[in-house]
What we know:
By secondary structure, the protein is α+β, with helices and mostly antiparallel strands. It folds into 2 domains: 3-109, Arc Repressor Mutant, subunit A; 132-280, Multidrug-efflux Transporter 1 Regulator Bmrr, Chain A (Alpha-Beta Barrel), CATH 3.20.80.
Amino acid sequence: MSHREYNETRFAKALDYLHRHFRQNINLNRVAEEASLSPYHWHRIYRAVMGETVHETVKRLRLHHAAELLISTQKSVAEIARECGYSGNTQSFERIFRQAYGVPPNTFRTQQHIPYSHQLPQTRPPASLPIEITTIEPLPVALVPHSGSYMRIGQSFELIESLLTLRGLLPAPDARFFGIYFNDPACTPEQELRAQAAVFLNNTQRSFEPPIQSGTIAGGRYAVYHYQGPYSNLEQAYTWFYSELLNTPYQVRDAPCFEEYLNDWQKVPPHELRTDIYLPLAD
Length: 283
């Protein structure tokens, strides 16, 4: 095993540990142990690769999980706070959640999970839904496969970004980030969901060493919906997108949809995140 491969393996183990234990009090020494590095060096390496500290990663994972629970369960805010690592401190959790999502947890839930800056109506898709029709060329990408809940694909993105950074390929001025989704979560068991976390570096097709794979986003004609808001609201955005498409002469072709993430979740609050959703169209 080369030195680079050894570093990548250690980093992947540490990321996996954080995703499995973010609900607990994270001990930096324990994370460093997973990475087989001293705490002093580990924390600096992690921040250089990820662009945030371990504690900032844990905070982000907790808030993302809290948003998921608010959407998918009827648990109280206090229960969710405890489950997400804020045991006995509901007020602190509510304050931190509001700072991240712009509204308190209960408001986030009662607004049907759509942020105040991008409300969608209950009855029918609006005529002004920002959809465009475009044709794209095939895009060569580096990718890491993901299986399971789409709400947890963030771990696969963190893995591929960290590995490409360690290999000297990121940051890159032309880099673009995509999520490719092969199944409908409404009718597919969670354990059977498949997706890919993908990065376009440039138009050169290249090979990558595992766990990164080479792939291509298919060219052709697509309908594109320009969505703004938390990733936890994307499922409802898809519902309106498909509804709006029914009012047009376009037909969806048998190919996976994909998303392009246009800004950095580390630099903007969730309600300012911009995502382009691409649905493939028949010719």
